[in-house]
Every structure is written in structure tokens, then in C-alpha cells.
Amino acid sequence: MKRTFTVFLLLSVTGLLTPQKFAMPVSGASKADYNQETFWYYPWGSSITHKGVDIFAKEGTETLSSTYGVVIARGNISKGGNFVLILGPKWRLHYYAHLKSTSIELFNFVYPKSIIGQVGSTGNAKGKEPHVHYSILILIPYFWKIDFSPQGWKKMFYLNPIPFLNETQ
Length: 169
Known about the structure:
CATH class: Mainly Beta
Low-confidence stretches: none
CATH topology: Glucose Permease (Domain IIA)
Number of domains: 1
Mean pLDDT: 91
CATH architecture: Distorted Sandwich
Largest sheet: 7 strands, antiparallel
Number of strands: 10
Helix content: 10-25%
CATH superfamily: Glucose Permease (Domain IIA)
Strand content: 25-35%
Order of helices and strands: HEEEEEEEEEEH
């Protein structure tokens, strides 16, 4: 039991201390390809509040991993369409949605700028301009981020990806 706890503690601390190298998740994108004001924008269709950022590009443009990590989920869901979910440094989940296709297998290790799919308009983005919805979810809640905005209690589980994107410019 003591050994199991030690391994768990070591993995937890290692995950939190691993540095996060960050890259733009859409090949060739710049600040002009996403709106600086869309994180936690309300109202936002059936999602109520927009919990990420949409990076616009031509359909089929390469979607890239924004950081190191392991692919823990991929597939198709109703709102997100084709998606990839990567567990990265600091126990953060990087979610890429509305992809035309995915090109990475489960449990593959990725690096910043590894190709994981292509920009598309699947899920609830069908019929809209092609883009990648990018969100960063956190597994250890940041309770101090809760506020009284619509769905403000959920802010403890999300980081605003826009400052990270801006650093890549």
C-alpha cells in the first residue's frame, strides 16, 4: 500500500512540475485567425457559454498538438464532432473539436506541432466556417476562478487558452 501511494504521489508531482512547451494548434494560424474575446463568451448556442477559442482556417489545414502529451480519447461526439483529447503537462486536458478527420491513435505520445487531424466543421459547427475549437480543461479545480457569470461555477475547470496562443506569436 505504501509503495502504491509513493508511485501515485511521484506521478502526481511529476505531472504538475513538467514544463509546458506551447505551440499554435492550427498550422499557419496567427492572432488574426481567432477572436481575443470569445473565451467564456455568452450566449453561445446550445453550449450556453463558449468555453474555449475557435481558430479559423481553410478546411483540411493540419491541426497540431499544442503541447506534449498522450492521446487519451478521440472519436466523434454530437457537439464536438470529430475530436481529440490529449493529457498534457500539469494534468491539463487539451481538447480539439470540429475536426474534418483525426490522424492520431489512442495512447500515442505527441509533441508540440505533432499532426493530430485536419480543420473541419463537424458536430454543431456543421455548415459553419471551418475551424478548430480548442479548450484547456484542468483536473485540479481552481476554485478561485468561480464567478457569477452564466455557468461561472464551471470556470474552475477551464483555463483561457488565448494567452497561451498569444505567446506563440
